[in-house]
Amino acid sequence: MTAVLENTTEAAQDGQAGAVASFEVTLKIRRYNPEVSEEAVWEEHTVTAHGTDRVLDALHKIKWELDGSLTFRRSCAHGVCGSDAMRINGRNRLACKTLLKDVNPDKPITVEPIKGLPVVKDLVVDMEPFFASYREIMPFLITSGNEPSRENIQSQADRDRFDDTTKCILCAACTSSCPVFWTDGQYFGPAAIVNAHRFIFDSRDEGATQRLEILNDKEGVWRCRTTFNCTEACPRGIEVTKAIQEVKRAMITRAF
Amino acid sequence: MQTHQYDVVIVGAGGAGMRAALEASKGARTAVISKLYPTRSHTGAAQGGMCAALANVEEDNWEWHTFDTIKGGDYLVDQDAAEVMAKEAIDAVLDLERMGLPFNRTPEGRIDQRRFGGHTRNHGEAAVRRACYAADRTGHMILQTLYQNCVKQDVEFFNEFYVLDLLTDHDLTTEDIEDGAEVNATGVVAYDLASGETHVFQAKAIIFATGGAGKIFKTTSNAHTLTGDGMALAYRRGLPLEDMEFFQFHPTGLAGLGILLSEAARGEGGILRNSEGERFMERYAPTIKDLAPRDIVARSMANEVREGRGAGPNKDYVLLDLTHLEPAHIDAKLPDITEFARTYLGIEPYTEPVPVYPTAHYAMGGVPTNIKGEVLRDGHNVVKGLYAAGEVACVSVHGSNRLGTNSLLDINVFGKRSGRSAAAYAQTVEQHLPIPENPAARVEAQLSEMRDRPEGERVAEVRKALQETMDANAQVFRTRESLEQAAADIRDLQKRYKNVSVQDKGTLFNTDLLEAIELGFLLDIAEVTVVAALNRRESRGGHYREDYPDRDDTNYMLHTMAYRRPTSAPDAADGHVEGYFDHVEDFGDYKVVLGSKTVTQTRYEPMERKY
């Protein structure tokens, strides 16, 4: 399944690169700089944008032309590196994958850091707790016995079994959209479970029991309340909630 | 300032850096310093595949792969290095699979393989299925798999640390070093973005794996963070940069945006068409058509547009047609890139052709190394303890034009080799070599000068001007006039750079400051690129001079070695520069001097390059 943005038909009409007229857009950004103040404040900036511009382009415009101190992470700028997850109009998205015209640019677009992780500065959060959870679920292939001299044999059907969860880019959009994670930062969170799923259902892997043990913890999969926020937030279109359910089921049936 | 001591320090945590780390950390105390979280590295954006002659789906062998790589690079490839890469490709792919990489599979459950540009059976007969792949996110899976194994092996990372200086025991910019004399790399100086502190890393061996420099161009598939840091640091410390005039323009960037659409789209049957609907590649490369190497396809596309057969309202792009492919096939093999077309251009590739145009993609040149990954300080002397691998390096397996998938191969083969060499070397060194008393002084002065400059031009303005002149004057088609224009612009921009200022004067997470520092790297890399391009009065691979449209093996079957030297340095013609090319470009404070290095040939005589 691919993630398709809303308004595709409208977009198709003006899909010609550069053929769309420019428009004004206001970003209402949550600013926080501990070197200046302990209080976070809302700040508005208006810039001129073009048809195919994304929220990241507007943020860059502000940073490069108006206020160099505006701070956010970004790298690839096309939705594969996972640097720029942020809360845009109340929903977690990647700034580089969200076209301005798709988030109603007629009203100010709110941009905040993702929730549940400590804010470092402006839109930058401390990702360490997130990666720590990821590392805990043993996110690597576990095998025993002699290594094959060639590749491991795996049928395409077995390969397809965990295809969806291999798409994860560790952007934290899912984990930081989860109400359970907001109230309990100890919860492993959807992203860690997605990455456990990726190995638990890999026919080559022999570490499923260990991972299920880890996720059977009181901060593990059972905390999931199936609100589907994570699935909705995932910029890669991963069916996150489904993956979590599959891990829960594997915990009970021990079939994987 | 904090100081650290390691046996091996690796700069960069993309594919090359992490592959090196997996090797080095087995036998040496290793740290990886990266300006990004490792999984953010741009290896993750690579799509189509990684070639290796596994022969899982049809007859193939590594010797054919070697030949294709050499021919694809228009014979400027060092043939010993290409042989190493093609031969070790097989184990590199198998290593990754055993590390957990989820490759697509054949009906027998082996690693599946598909066609890719320039990869052929039996020296050019027809396209061969050689690219091992995981849908169209092979790079993503490589990056994830390597990071996962780094977690498994408990590799130590310093994330969001920017390396801003290389420490050596001799100043190569000013000292006249004898042939055979020992020069050592002793450490690096890094800046911790989160705290604003400088850290000095003393190391017995250092591996540069900092990636490319695509941001010297405006239209590029590269990440914002690909600013040529490692190349520029080496260059500033007096080391040469090799073959920087050769930059690859990937044929299929999303028009107007430069976002990459993998060559796998054509490997899976996609066709390029002009405004008349014509499959124009039949005219330019009659045998392998749309699967010709990238330099040829990019030039053909640009030529179609120049001759008025471009599509769209401004006739400024061509079309990538996938509409004859089954939607299910597209979903299975090309899910990500078709989603890019939908997301960014609102185009549905099932039913509409996708607007594409060449996008700056890959630096064939870089920091010169030998096949062990050791960095050269001229045509043949190595810098002890300094290694480089991946796009930052030039070994040279890509010559004047890299074949698709060979970069993922390069990072795995030479990442592993450099990691192994660095650890082995570190084990022979008993004591860390002394570093200067205040090793961070240069970096701290540079940072505070930039931060404290009260007002001046914005960084973004200078960067934009640089990227625009590079796109206009040093892209697919080049002439002496266009390159002289670019050189003049860069001279002017280097001056303007001295007066840029940043608005963020803070200490914590100051990305404004780092963008200013990165702009300095970009200007230096653009400078070398243009000077080397001016000097090479021939057309070869990715470097096409309209005023010299033919390859000239008599005068230019040589690698370019560009050195930055003080204006007061002795005249290069006196023998101070190995293989001196009669070309010096004065930039006021310093000059760029061009030397050369012979191309290693083993068994392939240069031939005319036809597809």
Relevant terms:
heterodimer; A: 256 residues; alpha+beta; Ubiquitin-like (UB roll); Fumarate Reductase Iron-sulfur Protein, Chain B, domain 2; 2 domains; 5-stranded mixed β-sheet; 14% strand; B: 611 residues; alpha/beta; 8-stranded mixed β-sheet; 33% helix; 21% strand; globular
| Overall outline of chain B | globular
CATH H level, superfamily name of the largest domain in chain A: Alpha-helical ferredoxin
Supply the helix-strand structural class of chain B: alpha/beta
Residues in helices of chain B, as a percent range: 25-40%
Task: List the secondary-structure elements of chain A in sequence, H or E.
Answer: HEEHEEEEEHHHHHHH
Q: Please tally the β strands of chain B and state the result.
A: 23
Overall pLDDT level of chain A: 92
| Beta-strand content estimate of chain B | 15-25%
Unreliable segments of 5+ consecutive residues of chain B? none
Distance between the termini of chain A: 22 Å
- Which architecture of the largest domain in chain A per CATH? Orthogonal Bundle
* First-residue to last-residue Cα separation of chain B: 56 Å
The overall average pLDDT of chain B, rounded, is: 96
Low-confidence stretches of chain A: 1-18
Level-1 CATH class name of the largest domain in chain A: Mainly Alpha
Work out the count of structural domains of chain A.
2
Radius of gyration over C-alpha positions of chain B, nearest whole angstrom? 23 Å
Rg result of chain A: 20 Å
EC number (chain B): 1.3.5.1
Domain FAD-dependent oxidoreductase 2 FAD-binding (chain B): 7-408
Pathway (chain B): Carbohydrate metabolism; tricarboxylic acid cycle; fumarate from succinate (bacterial route): step 1/1
InterPro entries (chain B): FAD-dep_OxRdtase_2_FAD-bd, FAD/NAD-bd_sf, FRD_SDH_FAD_BS, Fum_R/Succ_DH_flav-like_C_sf, Fum_Rdtase/Succ_DH_flav-like_C, SdhA/FrdA/AprA, Succ_DH/fumarate_Rdtase_cat_sf, Succ_DH_flav_su_fwd
What secondary-structure arrangement, pairings included, does this model have?
The complex is a heterodimer of chains A (256) and B (611).
Chain A: H1 8-13, E1 23-31, E2 41-49, H2 55-66, E3 85-88, E4 91-94, E5 109-112, E6 119-121, E7 124-125, H3 128-136, H4 156-161, H5 179-183, H6 190-200, H7 208-215, H8 229-233, H9 240-253
Parallel strand pairs in A: 1-5
Antiparallel strand pairs in A: 1-2, 3-4, 3-5, 6-7
Chain B: E1 2-11, H1 15-27, E2 30-34, E3 50-51, H2 62-72, H3 79-99, E4 113-121, E5 126-132, H4 138-152, E6 156-159, E7 161-168, E8 185-192, E9 198-208, H5 229-236, E10 241-242, E11 247-254, H6 264-267, E12 271-273, H7 281-284, H8 294-306, E13 318-321, H9 327-333, H10 335-345, E14 354-363, E15 367-368, E16 374-376, E17 382-388, E18 393-394, H11 406-428, H12 441-452, E19 457-458, H13 459-473, H14 480-497, E20 500-501, H15 511-535, H16 553-556, E21 558-566, E22 584-586, E23 590-598
Helix pairs in contact in B: 1-4, 1-11, 2-3, 3-11, 5-15, 13-14, 13-15, 14-15
